[in-house]
Write a structure and sequence with these properties.
It is a single chain. This protein has about 280 residues and is mainly α. The protein has one domain. It has twelve helices and no strands. Helix 6 (about 120-135) runs antiparallel to helix 12 and helix 10 (about 235-240) packs antiparallel against helix 12. The model has no long low-confidence stretch (mean pLDDT about 90).
Length: about 280
Amino acid sequence: MAHTRAALWMIGAIVSFTSMAVAGRAVSGQLDTFEIMFYRSIIGFLIVVIIARLAGTHREVDFNHFRMHLLRNIFHFVGQNLWFLALPLIPLAQLFALEFTSPIWVVLLASIFLGERLTRLKLGIAALGFVGVLVVARPEINALSIGIIAAAVAAIGFAGAAIITRKLTVQNSLTKILFFLTGLQILFGLICAGFDGDIALPSSGTLPWLILIGVAGLAAHFCMTKSLTLAPASVVMPVDFVRLPLIAVIGMLFYGEILDIYVLLGAVLILIANYLNLKQRG
């Protein structure tokens, strides 16, 4: 029963991540990535503060471990901005396939930042995932697109954020983590978006999409966290793999994107690497 509820929460996360991609595509031509992150974070911050106040968890927010929160959100801000940058530049299936390399980067970076032992099996899993990336991206000398580079580096940013979040969750509540996640990224977004002295205001056309991005971003993290409290990662995370074929179908139906056989093959290799990683951890 717990596993069923965990799967349902994970489906909520899949819907939220997919909704954010569609909404991000809708506003990408009118707002830059910093502006999208700025408005998304404002919406998310308001939701976090209101819910924390109603639930009485606002007292959990303090400035202990602030430097770790700051570092975690620098990684996340860089990763999310690059994700939004890649969003209109490459097919959705390619973007999501490259995003799925994030857990593989966690394996490698955890050995550096968390002191976790890097075994031959872990290296083999990372190598398999890297082969998958090469198949998806098919890099050519002097011809690697900005979109592919941005998506690949975004996955590293998400991995860095995940590793620090793992350390933060030991002594910090979800309310506190989300408070600093949204609050700090309002500041980052404001500085970066306003660096040129020109911040575009939301229009009647972009505002609904920005609200969807803000709500979906928070909902995705909440649903995934809730799912992981009900079942092990080895049970929960394979459900997230459904996100890839789903976004590929959406790309075909709504954006006329061709389903590239190489993207599919590379994605399968990446997902197998992720599954093996989860199994050996479980």
